[in-house]
C-alpha cells in the first residue's frame, strides 16, 4: 500500500518516539539496578540514618503526640482557648481531623483544628458533645478544593502575629504553644 508523504512523516515520528522510549526505559532500568546493587554493597545498616543531623538535646523518638499536648493544655479547664503548636515539636496523631469532640476530666471540648505550616492551629470551646462528622467532612473538602493555600498563608502570617508563648508539660517533656495574644484564663469569651 502506498502512503502519502504526510502519513510517512507521522509513522517515522512514531517509530522514532518508540525507539527513544525503549532506550529510555532500558537506561532507567540499568541505572536502578546499578544503584540498588551499589547501595546493598556499600551501605552499613547502622549508617543508614547517619546523614540526618541529630539534635543531641532532644530525642526525636519521644516527641509528644499532638493529642497529649491538647489534653495537657486543657487539663487546667479553660472554657475556651485558641493556640498554635509547631509541627516539628510533636508527632501529629490527629492528621486529617478538622472538627471533633475531645473529653478531658469529664468536660467535652469542641475542637476546630487545621494545619497551617509551620504550625497546627487549635481552637477549643467547652460544650456538650455533638456529632461533628458532617462538619469535619465539609472542612476537609474545603481544604482540598482550595489546595491548602489559605492554611499556608495563615501559618506564615501567624509567625509574624504571635505575641505570647506558654509551656505545656507532657509525659514526654515540655512543649511550647503559641498564642496571638495572652488569654485571660477565666474568661468565657
Secondary-structure blueprint of this entry?
Layout: H1 5-42, H2 66-74, E1 80-86, E2 99-104, E3 107-116, E4 119-126, H3 133-145, H4 149-161, E5 164-170, E6 173-179
Give your account of this protein's structure:
- The chain is an alpha+beta fold and 189 residues long.
- The chain folds into 2 domains: 5-42; 61-179, no CATH class.
- 39% of the residues lie in helices and 24% in strands.
- It has helices at 5-42, 66-74, 133-145, 149-161, and strands spanning 80-86, 99-104, 107-116, 119-126, 164-170, 173-179.
- A 6-stranded antiparallel β-sheet has the order 2-3-4-1-6-5.
- A hairpin with a 2-residue loop joins strand 3 (107-116) and strand 4.
- The radius of gyration is 27 Å and the shape is globular.
- The model is unreliable at 20-24 and 43-54 (pLDDT under 50).
- Pfam families: DUF4528.
- InterPro entries: DUF4528.
Amino acid at each position: 500500500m502506498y502512503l502519502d508523504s504526510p502519513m510517512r512523516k507521522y509513522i517515522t515520528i512514531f517509530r522514532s518516539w518508540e525507539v527513544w522510549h525503549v532506550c529510555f526505559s532500558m537506561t532507567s532500568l540499568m541505572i536502578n539496578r546499578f544503584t540498588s546493587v551499589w547501595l546493598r554493597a556499600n551501605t552499613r545498616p547502622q549508617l543508614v540514618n547517619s546523614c540526618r543531623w541529630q539534635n543531641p538535646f532532644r530525642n526525636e523518638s519521644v516527641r509528644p503526640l499532638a493529642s497529649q499536648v491538647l489534653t495537657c493544655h486543657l487539663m487546667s479547664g479553660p472554657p475556651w482557648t485558641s493556640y498554635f503548636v509547631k509541627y516539628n515539636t510533636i508527632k501529629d496523631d490527629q492528621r486529617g481531623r478538622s472538627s471533633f469532640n475531645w473529653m478531658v476530666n469529664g468536660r467535652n471540648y469542641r475542637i476546630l483544628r487545621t494545619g497551617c505550616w509551620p504550625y497546627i492551629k487549635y481552637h477549643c470551646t467547652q460544650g456538650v458533645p455533638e456529632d461533628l462528622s458532617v462538619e469535619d467532612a465539609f472542612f476537609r473538602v474545603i481544604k482540598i478544593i482550595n489546595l491548602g493555600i489559605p492554611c499556608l498563608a495563615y501559618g506564615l502570617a501567624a509567625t509574624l502575629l504571635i505575641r505570647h508563648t506558654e509551656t505545656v508539660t507532657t509525659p514526654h517533656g515540655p512543649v511550647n504553644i503559641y498564642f496571638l495574644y495572652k488569654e485571660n484564663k477565666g474568661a468565657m469569651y
